[in-house]
Amino acid sequence: MAARDSIMHKPKDSKGALRRMLRFLGPYLWLLVLVALLCIGSNLLSLLGPNLAGSAINEAAAGPGKVNFERVGYYALRMLICYAASSLLTVCIHVVMMNVSKRAAKQMRRAVFEKLMRLPVSYFDRSQAGDIISRVSYDIDVISTCMATDVTAILTSVVTVVGSVVMMVTISLPLSAVVLFSVPASILYTSWMRKRTQPRFVKRSKNYGVMNGFVEEMLSGQKTIQAYAYEKRVAQRFDAINHNAAEAYYDADRYGVTIGPTMGTINNITLSLIALFGSLLFMGGRIQLGSISSFVLYSRKFSGPINEIANIINELFSALAASERVFELLDADEEPADAEGALELSDVRGDVKMEHVSFGYEKSRTIIHDLSMHAEQGKLIAIVGPTGAGKTTIINLLMRFYDAQGGVIRVDGHDICACTRESLRKAYAMVLQDTWVFRGTIFENIAYGRDGATREEVAAAAKAAHIHPFIMRLPRGYDTVVSEDGGNISKGQKQLLTIARAMLYDARMLILDEATSNVDTSTEREIQHAMRSLMQGKTCFVIAHRLSTVKNADHILVLDHGDVVEQGTHSSLMQAKGAYYKLYRSQFE
Amino acid sequence: MKFLFKYLKCFLKRITGVMGIKLLGTALELMIPFVMEHLIDHVVPQNSFSHVLLWGGIMIALAVAVRFLNVTANRMSVLTAKEAAYAIRRDLFSAALRLSGSQMDRVGLPSLISRMTSDSYNVQSFIQSMQTMGIRAPIMLVGGIAVTLAMDAGLALILCIMAPVMIALVVFISMKGIPLYDRVQAGMDDLVRIMRENITGVRVVKALSREGHEKSRFAAANGEQMRRDIRAGVTMAMPGPIVTLFLNVGLALVVFVGARRVNSGQTEPGVILAFLTYFNMILMGVMGLNRIFMMLSKANASAKRIAGVVDLKEELTPVPEELCPAPPDDGFIVFDDVSFSYDADAESRGGGEGFLGSARQKCLEHISFSVPRGGTLGIIGATGSGKTSIINLLMRFYDPQEGRVFVGGRDVRTYQLDALRSQFGAVFQNDVIFADSILENVSFGRDVDENGVSDALDHAMAGEFVSGYDDGLMHRAAIHGANFSGGQKQRLLIARALAANPSILVLDDSSSALDYRTDAALRRAIREHHSGATSVVIAQRVSSIMSLDRIMVLDEGRMIGFGSHEELLASCPAYREIHETQMGDL
User: Fold this and answer.
1) Which residues of B touch A516 (CB under 8 A)?
2) DSSP character for A343?
3) Handedness of CA A419, A425, A427, A433 (dihedral sign)
């Protein structure tokens, strides 16, 4: 089915994609040459087989009592050796090609992953994770499968077709004419059939797609459907979709299933014609019996690749389309390199200044117009505003996940655009709302930010984050493996883990998202204590959700619709009776 | 396989027909080389031009007849596959729709979807190819051997010895290869996991400048994946050359032994020639059998997974009223000492996304409360404290292990499910907007006219943005309402719940994406226009529920507070604490 579905996406620039795909095979050029030689060898050897068989039969055709066994044995042994050697070479070809294609696939995956590491955060904000992943898992797989099978298939086809034609012509020119007549017949037939069936298969895939989408949608809303007793309606609608899918399948496949028998028939008719004309030629004394048998074998060899060509072309196209998707990712704009002679920030005090900063995620839509602010060393800056007001934008700018379009941001007086990204980012510790843990031990998760952290240091950080007792209660303590989404530990504990990570990291500046994490009250209390001690003595930027934090802040930024609409302290903002005042009041309505 | 047979029973005649036709077609195909042998060995020596033409013509006629028979049989089998797959999908889908909550937990949503899609396709293509190939391959093999036996038993013996060895070898290698592919799949899952971790955690990775570390982590998994891939690929590439080798060795033997037999007058040269053709047929037969074998094991697994859903017994059927005692008081919604836990079986498996909004681990312990008709109840508590479970029991998506739930003075188990649920208007956690018009999404198959829908939208604070669309109520939602913002979706869902003027309104965390102002306006509108409805509201924000008549505080499945906002502030320390962290100073 996969091959048929791929009909739908044809590559846009086949030549360019092919050239770049071949570049990944570059390191294996010599192996590919070897494969080509092996291919020629293996096929020539197997082409010799029928000829030797024919010679043997010619010897046997001498009739009862007159057979020269020495000659027959000679040919039969030769035949055996040729076939055995050919099979051995085929095995070698498979082994080499598997190695080449899988190694190339590995290189491609590596290239993609390393590219991902160089892409800016904005790329990930724009793209769907599933789409990126399918390029590595599905698309590269399609490409490597094509390399593994189609390269050898093409080589084999060429050698076999050319070899067979040569052998057939040498055996008997008139008989060859018969075969060469049947070739255009099968090519014409397949291309004619493809034209007729292709739209039907496209329609089939489309109908299946509609059905899959409907099923996925309805089953994920199954509870709602039951709650509103909507089942009958849904079942009726599914019936129509199911019916259409069934009809589209029937319509496409009833054409599809005629191809096989028809190709078989063309082969059988060719065989009949060879037998017929061969007999006539034999009667005219123009050909020997054994030659007819060799000829039959060659014609069979010959028809195999011809029948395969349509398939190979299809697969080649789908591999090219897949490689275009991979190259598209490899061509995405990277995070620009640090400026020449960029400054390595060190011994950061944590004095942050924003001067007339303007920014928009799209160049044409500025959301932060003119923001100036000064966060002195050790001060607490609260960022407040309704959901979706753009609170993370400030963080994106501070850490240079995005660069401001206008104005300057300074850390300790240095323009951050003139500093290396690495040293800037290392100056911040960070606890985000969607706490990130990866599959690894608790130790590895806490020590993530610092190479060579010792057990003691990690335990000290965990103690400061109030999670040490919990970890010790786990059967394997710090060696307990947490899973990708942290499913085996609770949300609150995940948050404590990331706080511990930040504790260990010990930077002078802190970015904190204190979203009410919807955990039980005692964990909530511990998280608050942990955050308090983490904030100690650092310049803190806090996306604030707790009024206590806001009230205690040295400076408040009020955001709405992406822009900073107000800033000041709690009391000054309350007096201004502006956006902050309204936000504050609305909680008590 | 028993399951499939149920669906194929009504096509028995047609399937028998297909097999008959295939049998005939394959038999005729096998005759072609036979005729050729006759032509060369017996007709040619007669030196009769017209006889040669006649036998040549017979060969061509056979080829044409074979095509006709094969195409007919193939088309009939496609028809059968189409109709059977249609019926299987129909039954599977309606079975999926009526699964109870705990059944859904056990199966899991992703698995259910893949059973509906890829498993049903597997079964469909199996039904088709089993008929087209299932006869052909064995007949090619057996028939090929039989014909050669008939032509020259001595020579055929070579084949008879070789065929079983070949089949055994091929099947053995394939069996070895399947687990290798499972390992390739597992390796790919590892790679995908690392990528997903890096994509979701891109800010952390960059903030800590861990790119190098991540690269080497990926490289290790990548290299391992390559080794597994090569091993599986090389293994599975072996059957082809091995079968070819065996056959060709057989060929050489046939030529040699054949020559001896010609010499002793036991056979004729044309026989050797025909043998060479039959060898190819047998080769195709062996490869075909291998494919059938692989397909069979795949389809069998798929059929089992489908049967696992279709054959599930319907749960939550109504219980006769006599068996259920009367409620302890005359409240409209009454829980009487209810204890409940989700299926222990599903818990241990844990995988997959379960029934919408259900937390599995926690349960309810001895919950009793009562809400009068028209009363309002708020439920607050941490994630996993059992808030949603109360709704799941109230609307009978699950049955409690202990205690009873009453709605309108009747045990919920005595209602027909539809009759019970039609009293409700509900918005669940992560509820779904379907790809349909706004009108259909709100009226949702109930008897609500356009005016009713407009009113409901207004009350749900959605009137404004909906009237902003040129096509108004007919505006189409994308799948999962992807073209709406989170807040817009929640308001549409609330409109759906309000539209039929339900006697019970259930809102499970349904205003989390609304800002405080909209949330407050929404609450006011519901108070004004739907005062007759008994409402149950689950929320994380105290402000969303503090004006309700009664508030329940849940903690790990236990009710640790029940009363009005003021009562709870005075009596329930946990409630006071939540209130303080959200609303005021610490």
Assistant:
1) 540, 581-582
2) B
3) positive
DSSP-assigned letter for residue A351: -
SS3 of A75, please? helix
Cα(A291)–Cα(B40) distance, integer angstroms: 12
Strands (E), A412-530: 414-415, 428-431, 440-441, 481-482, 509-513
Task: Report helix, strand or coil for B535.
Answer: strand
Q: What angle do CA A453, A458, A459 make, to 5 degrees?
A: 145
Are the beta carbons of B125 and A279 separated by less than 8 Å? no
Question: Which phi-psi region, left, alpha or beta, contains residue B461 (left: φ > 0; alpha: ψ -120 to 50)?
Answer: left
Q: Is A111 on the interface with B (CB under 8 A)?
A: no
Q: Residues A307, A310, A314, A319: is their CA dihedral positive or negative?
A: positive
Which of A76, A518, A586 is the closest to B383 by Cβ? A518
Residues with Cβ < 8 Å from A230, sequence gap 6 or more?
A224, B444, B445
Q: What is the mean pLDDT of residues B20-30?
A: 89
Q: Contacts for A195-200 with beta carbons within 8 Å, 24 or more apart?
A: A196/A255, A197/A252, A197/A255, A197/A256, A197/A259, A198/A7, A200/A248, A200/A251, A200/A252, A200/A255
What is the per-residue pLDDT across B297-345, written as a single tens digit (0 to 9) for each?
778 888 988 998 999 888 888 888 888 888 888 889 999 999 988 754 4
Q: Say yes or no for a CB contact (<8 Å) between B191 and A238.
A: no
Mean pLDDT of A494-514: 83
Structure tokens at B575: 């409630």
The ipTM of this complex is: 0.81
Residues of B in contact with A444 (CB under 8 A): none
Specify the residue for token string 């999962």.
B480
Ranges A533-542, B128-137, B545-554, most confident: B545-554
Return the pLDDT at B584: 55
Distance CA B166, CA B169 (A): 5
Query: Residue B467: which residues within 8 A CB-CB, separation 6 or more?
Result: none
- Whether residues B40 and A116 touch (CB distance < 8 A) is answered with no
pTM of the model: 0.73
Is B426 exposed, middle or buried (CB count within 10 Å of its CB: 0-12, 13-18, 19+)? buried
Largest CA distance in chain B: 118
CB A507 within 8 A of CB A428: yes
Q: Return the DSSP state at A438.
A: -
Among B82, B273, B280, the residue with its CB nearest the CB of A57 is B273
Q: Which residues of B touch A300 (CB under 8 A)?
A: 277, 280
DSSP per-residue letters across B414-436 = GS-HHHHHTTEEEE-TT----SS
B252 touches chain A (CB under 8 A): yes
Number of residues that make up chain A? 589
Query: Per the structure block, which two tokens stand in for B448?
Result: 């609500």
Q: Which residue in chain B is spatially nearest to A144 when comparing CA positions? A: B229
- The answer to whether residues A350 and A398 touch, using CB atoms and an 8 Å cutoff, is no
Asked if residue A4 has pLDDT above 50, the reply is no
Length of chain B: 586
Nearest to B60 among A269, A297, A525 (CB): A269
Give CA–CA dist A310/A7, Å, rounded. 12
Among B307, B353, B354, CA closest to B95: B307
C-alpha span between A304 and A299 (Å, rounded): 9
Asked whether the CA dihedral A363, A366, A372, A374 is positive or negative, the reply is: negative
Inspect the interface and report whether the beta carbons of A261 and B67 lie closer than 8 Å: yes
Which DSSP letter does residue A141 get?
H
Residue carrying structure tokens 């995908």: B192
**pLDDT at res. A487:** 55
Q: Does A137 touch chain B (CB under 8 A)?
A: yes
pLDDT tens, position by position, B3-19? 888 899 989 999 999 99
A449 phi, psi to nearest 5 deg: -80, -15
